[in-house]
Structure formats: structure tokens, C-alpha cells
Here is the input.
Amino acid sequence: MLNYGEKYGRYLTEIDQALDGYLNEADTLYQSVISAMRYSILGAGKRVRAILLIEFCKACGGTQQLAMPFACALEMIHAYSLIHDDLPCMDNDELRRGKPSCWKEFGETTALLAGDGLLTKAFEAAASSTAQANLALRAMMELAKNAGTSGMLGGQVIDLEGEGKPVDEVRLLKMYSMKTGALINSAAKIGCILAGADEERISLSHEFAEKIGLAFQIVDDILDVTGNEKILGKPIGSDVQSHKTTFVALHDLEYAKNKAIKLTEDAKSILTKFALEDDFLYELTDRLAVREN
Ligand code: GRG
Here is the structure.
């Protein structure tokens, strides 16, 4: 059996190969946008969402092959959100995943279109699913809702409109659960749905993902204060610079760290209810709470 690092490495390679397969269009007339899409998604990122989707699919009796089209779709939607989030009209960030952000490398127009291209390509990839049609359709609905106004996009709006204003904890947590939590949530749920899991397991995966989604964002807030720009691959201090209220600003670093640890422990206790092939998901859950990028 592969150890954690080996299994993670294999996931990175296989997800990249599958993404590459979706992003090969030979028409030279619009290669500029394909190049920008490939630049932003290939060989970069932790692939947390894709890996969660595959792991939950397997935990419910499915296979990596069954999960892969939706795993790629989720990574494409995630990459589009990062491209658009970095644009000058949004966060105006020049560094992403350790290299110039898409707009810095290709210009604003191409970056905008590359984001749009990845968003639409995501649904093309999802539609190539080999899952039972009713399950694939339900998964597609999860994907669309969690990416759109009732999920990540809505969370981004709440976030942007809160800049420079006092934000209370209720609004902050709502924003986190939409902006960051929704895609993570859809990863776990879609994995279960594709495998034909019962409602109880789908709901358990939802509870698990709510907890790690919040822990993930709290760690992101912590890293924005204590992180190392080189390891993080994006600028630090951007929350303060854009006058954003964060979990760390509402409480303090110590409280935030403890909260992330508590959420992680609670999430792991939910995992005991799944028949997992190994400890990989437990270890991933633990590592997300102490990650440095
Ligand atoms: C533009 C519609 C639209 C939405 C943007 C997701 C998002 C909303 C903005 C990205 C900025 C940000 C800090 C989002 C919070 C979620 C988050 C921590 C994203 C980074 O995800 P990782 O750490 O990134 O999984 P990698 O590079 O590893 O894939």
C-alpha cells in the first residue's frame, strides 16, 4: 500500500493528466486563451477539492475513474475563481501559485476570458461523466449551485461588499461557508453522489466538509498574517491591506489556531462513519490544519 506522500503524489500526477486531456484544443486561432487556461491550472495547486471528491467517491464504493470528470470540473471552477479574484478590478494580485497571476502574464482581457473558459469547460468535463445519468445530473446541480450565487460567487459578493466596513461574526461565517466552504462541500458530496451513496452518507460528508471548509479558511486567514510569501505562493498581508475583517481580526491568532484544531478533530470523528481503504483522509484532514501554503 502507498504511504500518504506517495498516494498524494500519484493523485497530483493523475489529476494533472486528466486536466491536460480536457485542455487540448488544436485550433490555433484561439490558442491565447487555451494557453492562459493551461498556465493557470496545470502543475499548480494542492488539488484539495479534486482529491476530496475522489476519496469520498471511493469511500462510498465508487472509483477514481468514476470521480475524475467531476474532480477536474471542480478544479477548473476553483482555478477560474482564482484568476478572476486576482484581476485588478477585484483583489489586484500579481502573484498566484508562486508565479505571476494570469492577468499579469497574459493581460486582463485574456485572463477574464481564461476564467470564463475554465468555468464553461468545467461543465463540459462534468458532462463527460460515466456515472448513472440521474446521479450525474444531481452532481451537476450540486456543482452549479455551489459555484454560483448561492455558493462561491455569492460569498465573493458578500466579501467584497464588506470591505472597509465592520463585519460581525455571523456575516463573516456565512461569507466563509459560501466563498470557501461551498466548493469544498460540493467536493465531498459529489463524490458520494456519484458513487450512489445513501442520504445518510451524503449528509455526513456535508457535515465533514462544513468543518474542514471553515478550518481551511481560518488557516488561510492565519497564513495571511504569519505565512511566508515564497512558500504561500501569493502575497501576505492582503486582508489588512484591503481592510477585510477576518477570523483572526475578530479574535486573535491563538484563538483562531485552536478553532482550526477543534474543527479538524470534529471532522475526523465524522470520518469514522465511513469505510475508508486507508488513513489518507484522516492525514489529509490533519495536514490541512497545519499547512503552510
Ligand atoms: C471570482 C467568482 C469569484 C470568486 C472568487 C475563491 C475565491 C472567490 C477567491 C479566491 C481567494 C480566496 C482567498 C479564497 C478563499 C478560498 C481559498 C483559501 C482559496 C485558495 O485555495 P487553495 O489553498 O489553493 O486550495 P490552491 O492553489 O492550492 O489550489
